[in-house]
Amino acid sequence: MTPDDLRAWQAAMGYAYAQAHAALGVSSSTYANMLAGSKIDRRTALACAALAAGLEPWAPVKP
């Protein structure tokens, strides 16, 4: 995932800056660093995909 991909995800989700970093569970400064070109880890890319797909956090199925 590139910074441009992250910006596209934010726009597609209709998130303001603060909503985007909160949804990903990262600080404002971490999100800013990702947008500025810092490496975007796989966990963040997967979180973007999960949020875009409307998935909730994983929880075990209770019998």
Could you characterize the architecture of this molecule?
- The protein is an all-alpha fold.
- The protein has one domain.
- Helices cover 60% and strands 0% of the residues.
- The protein is built from four helices and no strands.
- The chain is elongated and about 45 Å long.
CA-to-CA gap between the ends? 37 Å
- Assembly state (oligomeric): single chain
As for the number of domains, it is 1
Q: Which blocks of ≥5 consecutive residues have pLDDT under 50?
A: none
Question: The biggest beta sheet, please?
Answer: none
Order of helices and strands: HHHH
Average pLDDT level: 96
The percent of residues in helical segments reads: 55-70%
| Percent of sequence in beta strands | under 5%
Output the structural class: mainly alpha
Task: Report Rg.
Answer: 12 Å
Short characterization:
The protein has one domain (3-52).
